[in-house]
Amino acid sequence: PEAAEEAAMLAEVDVQELPAVFDPLEALEGKVLVHEDKERNIAITTKVRKGDVRKGFEESYVVIENTYKMGYQDHAYLETEGALAIPELEGMTVISVAQYPHLAQQKVARVLGISQNKVRIVQPVIGGAFGGKDDMGPIVAAQAAIAAHYAKRPVLLTYSREDSMVAHCKRDPAVIYYKTGATKDGKLKAIEVEIIFDSGAYANRGPFTLWRATAHASGPYEVPNAKVDGKLVYTNKVYQGSFRGFGNPQIQFAAERQMDELAYELGIDPVEIRLKNILRTGSLTVTNQKLEYNVGVAEALEKVAKASEWWERRKRYPIVENGKARGLGVGVIWHGISTSRGVPDWSNAYINIARDGTVTVYTGIVEIGQGTSTGHMQIAAEALGIPINYIRIIHGTSDAPDTGATHASRGLSQGGNGVLIAATKLRNRIERAIARHFNCSELDVQIRDGWVYVKGERKLSWREAVDIAYKLGEDMAATGHFFLPKGRFDEEKGQGFAYLCYSFMALITEVEVDLDTGLTKVVKAWPAIAAGKIVNPELVKGQIYGGLVQGIGYMLIEEVKLENGKILNPNFTDYLIPTIADIPEIADPIFVEDVFPFGAFGAKGVGEMCLIPTPASIGNAIRHATGVKVNEIPFTPEKLYFALKEVRK
Q1: What is the pairing mode between strands 174-182 and 62-70?
Q2: Cβ(257)–Cβ(618) under 8 Å?
Q3: CB distance 417 to 602 below 8 Å
Q4: In degrees to the nearest 10, what's the CA dihedral of 203, 103, 608, 558?
């Protein structure tokens, strides 16, 4: 590494500065084109149309209009990007940090000009990803592979912290114009929304994050009339990419701030106005998709309001003591699980049972700290009727079946379906073999806790049963595949099927604001989640806690500083992230198990839910404590300090 650094210092680079545009609103004017082969700086547009917006606003008693702005957020994972590429006789093995080993395999094969079966990806447990390594993993794998191909020897590529923060994708900056109309009693009548996402220099995942934001523009509420337009705009800056929430934190912040402003204008409690409009089973979404399955968000909101003593606290707050103000805020969100619209999505797994009864599960889903591997082992153990310690899981390798990406909160809820199906096949085969062995009906055979019962009487150990199945010719290896059913979305009409199912979260936060400095501290948080069957409550708690802290960083602390497109703070000295001192007291999460028939044991997704409502909940709490309308992310102490001065004038 030292020699490589020395060589890099000897390189001389001549740079010719070209015209550039850094503001997405200026980029829309088209005076400077980021890509000269395009006629404008708009990469893609999106839209949703529902009902008659003009009529909806005419029927509204109150109309609220605001502009919301959001900046970049860096993933700030502790492990930077890296890959080790090892040339083989007829191909390449790459140990990388991808969230989708088969996508990395595809990209490495493409750049080397060889077939995919000559590329092997090995994915160890990742030291943080949050979506960023879904984008960057295949890139660094391909970079290392090209170098190894030409050097004809192994190549290790790792990014320094500065390289990582300058080069990797980030959460999309956004400008959102939002207009909401409602009746005197708080029923929503219409929304009109324009969403501008700053793409940076490349489109990357922008078309998909923008579409998600567009399809979620209403928040988790029934709105009879909606007009939503999205624009993905090129600028000469670092590009956007996958990040926990995938375009939804931005729009949910705007939608939830609008709900609070409506509540203030109408004199209605913020929780009550939400319950008046909340999505329920059978509701039609903003894209006119009917929610046919269980929708538990109303129950989650009611329970968390009660647990936090919302109504009692709102009467007492805001409180100002010793120059510090306390307030209470709520954020309620929805999030479509898995990939959107008609994009193909599937689950795949392979399970093998050895002669000694031990079980090996193969899945392409990657472990990035979320605990999915544990969840998959639980699913297999439950389906087979054996203890979890009988099972070993091999994950994150191209040797396993292509299970799709570990993103979109699909790792357990959808990725687990393949495991469940394969395990169920094997259990059925063993039960069939035991029924033949004892000359009884398969209905008389039960497997639980590693033992086989025939007509209620314990007869065999799991290992003995497996041995009998082998001897009777049963196949002790099985694949599990499930193709997810999806509907259609009409792009021209902006109507139709958006996501297979939705998870929901309600979050209430209490903040303390120093009125002299603008410093905001989140004192306590009360989370409630409606995400189907909770397979492992402890893992879900970990996701909620981690997402909450990341959301605090996004809302209050984390700010990418740029000058003429150049990142000025590409390190943890100047790019601040929450520390243990910033973590609030977190109440025990409330779980509403609104089971989903197409999820493993009824599970829906969890991983992204916990971050999405945090900025809105904190922003609404600051508004309650200080009277300042919080319309920007991040809302740093400096911004709040000057906003407080304006309020006091």
Answers
A1: antiparallel
A2: no
A3: no
A4: -50
Which one, of 374, 337, 372, 317, lies nearest residue 622 by Cα? 317
pTM of the model: 0.95
Q: By C-alpha distance, which of 185, 4, 157 is closest to 95?
A: 157
Structure tokens at 643: 């906003």
- E strands, 338-449, are 346-353, 359-363, 391-395, 445-448
Residue type, 212: R
Residue 107 Cα to chain centre, angstroms: 23
Give the DSSP H/E element, type plus range, for residue 501: strand 501-514
How far is residue 329 CA from its own chain's centroid?
23
Please list, in sequence order, all residues whose beta carbon lies within 8 angstroms of the beta carbon of residue 504, skipping any fewer than 6 positions away.
Answer: 220, 279, 295, 296, 297, 300, 332, 333, 334, 335, 529, 530, 531, 594, 609
| Chain segment 423-470, per-residue pLDDT in tens | 999 999 999 999 999 999 999 999 999 999 999 999 999 999 999 999
pLDDT in tens, 242-269: 999 999 999 999 999 999 999 999 999 9
Task: Name the average pLDDT for the chain.
Answer: 95
* pLDDT value of position 342: 64
- 221-233 pLDDT tens trace: 999 999 999 999 9
Residues whose CB is less than 8 angstroms from the CB of residue 236 and which lie 6 or more positions away in sequence, other chains included: 20, 21, 22, 34, 201, 565
Distance CA 238, CA 168 (A): 8
Per-residue three-class SS string for 175-230: EEEEEEEECCCCCEEEEEEEEEEEEECCCCCHHHHHHHHHHCCCCCECCCEEEEEE
- Enumerate the β-bridge partners of residue 198: 233
Indicate if the alpha-carbon torsion angle 584, 590, 591, 594 is positive or negative: negative
The contacts of residue 575 (CB under 8 Å, 6+ apart) are 74, 76, 165, 558, 559, 560, 569
DSSP secondary structure string for all residues of 576-623:
----GGGPPEEPPPEEE----TTSGGGB---TTTTTTTHHHHHHHHHH
Q: How far apart are CA 609 and CA 122, in angstroms?
A: 29
Give the pLDDT confidence of 608-649 residue by residue, as tens digits.
998 999 999 999 999 999 999 999 999 999 999 999 988 877
Whole-number Å distance between alpha carbons of 491 and 487:
13
Round to whole Å and give the CA distance between 98 and 648.
Answer: 50
Q: In 3-state terms, what secondary structure has residue 139?
A: helix
Which strand (E) or helix (H) includes residue 254? helix 248-266
Q: How many residues does the chain have?
A: 649
Residues with Cβ within 8 Å of 439's Cβ and at least 6 positions away in sequence, in order, are: none
What's the longest Cα–Cα distance across the chain?
A: 89
- pLDDT (tens digit per residue) in 382-423: 999 999 999 999 998 999 999 888 887 787 888 899 999 999
52 DSSP 8-state letter: -
Helix (H/G/I), strand (E/B), else coil: 516: coil
Neighbours of 63 (CB within 10 A): 17
The one-letter amino acid at 340:
S
Q: For residue 154, what are the CA distances in angstroms to 118, 352, 398, 609?
A: 16, 32, 19, 40
Residue recorded with tokens 């509907």: 487
Mean pLDDT of 144-173: 96
Cis peptide before 344, with omega less than 30 degrees from 0? Answer: no
